[in-house]
Amino acid sequence: MTRSVERTDDVPLSRQLATGLSDNGQGAGAAFRALRESKGLTLEDASAYMKHPVSRIQALEDERWDVLPKGTALRGMIRNYARFLGADGQALVQALEPAIGKTGAGLGESVLAKGVPDIRERAQVGNWVWLFTLLLVCAAVLVYASWQGWLPADWWSGEGN
Questions:
Q1: Residue 148 in contact with residue 142, Cβ under 8 Å?
Q2: What is the pTM of this model?
Q3: Where does the record place a coiled coil (predicted)?
């Protein structure tokens, strides 16, 4: 059972969380934990609010960046957790950028790095396939129409008006 969360600004801890981080982002997890505990909130409360498993929030507080989502999803999770705790999420993401920037590229870059063609290349290949299929169908219709005698005899011979 989760209780309603009353957010009171805990200025010293919020300020520590947003501005007191070192250049590599170390200490963010401890500051998150201290702010959450100062408000009397549990990991389960945070989990219910954020719709993330307790293990993921625990990983955030333990600064285990390698087990957390990468890129935009991680930045959104940090903003959401900061909002839940009453801190400035954007300032936190900027302060943690050196630490979370090491986690790798977002989905689009990681997919392209694996050699999968991007959508424009697939679209160009797809266009040629459709064009070839259309020409093949047209040729089949002409052959069938000729075979059935639906086309005039002089149409094939080139004789005309």
A1: no
A2: 0.51
A3: none
Contact 81, 48 (CB under 8 A): no
Residues 96 and 19 both lie in one domain? yes
Number of structural domains the chain divides into: 2
pLDDT digits (tens, 9 = 90+) for 73-110: 888 888 888 888 888 888 888 888 877 765 444 444 44
Parent domain of 93: 11-110
DSSP string, 79-113: HHHHHHHTS-HHHHHHHHHHHHGGG---HHHHHHH
User: Which residue is it, tokens 């064009």?
Assistant: 131
Distance CA 118, CA 129 (A): 17
Residue 1 covered by a domain: no
Considering the domain architecture, whether residues 86 and 132 belong to the same structural domain is answered as no
Q: Give pLDDT, residue 132.
A: 92
